[in-house]
Design a protein that fits this description.
single chain; 127 residues; alpha+beta; four-stranded antiparallel β-sheet; 3 helices; 4 strands; 38% helix; globular
Length: 127
């Protein structure tokens, strides 16, 4: 799975564990910074974002019960999360979230290229 990353980017991938729940929630929160511009107290925004994250995870599990979460790292630092459902007929990219400091630097493209490579090897499409 995700066998061919661009070696220049030095990305590694590992299955997410229960210890990664906080990291995955933080990554989710980093994509919703506009919530903090609503003028609500920070504690309220944090609660809303946590609820949104929980709803998203519940929805993913309902829609893609065989999906798995993976943690993307670079030089032992977490840079993102990938949710992927692997089926005999296709690979389904459920979610890809990158940390703000690595966005627009080719890491997302490297992950997508690696998924395209795996799909080609397995002779299945990506959804």
């Amino acid at each position: 799975m995700i066998s061919e990353f661009n070696p220049l980017l030095n990305i590694s991938v590992r299955p997410a564990s229960d210890n990664d729940v906080f990291i995955m929630a933080q990554l989710f929160h980093s994509t919703r910074l506009d919530f903090y511009q609503l003028g609500l107290p920070k504690a309220t925004v944090n609660m809303l974002l946590q609820q949104q994250y929980q709803l998203q995870q519940t929805s993913y599990q309902s829609q893609f019960p065989n999906s798995m979460d993976y943690i993307l790292c670079r030089q032992a630092k977490v840079i993102g999360k990938l949710s992927l459902a692997i089926n005999p007929e296709y690979l389904h990219l459920v979610d890809l979230v990158l940390a703000p400091e690595v966005r627009s630097k080719g890491f997302g493209s490297a992950v997508l290229e690696a998924l395209k490579y795996d799909a080609k090897v397995w002779l299945v499409p990506i959804r």
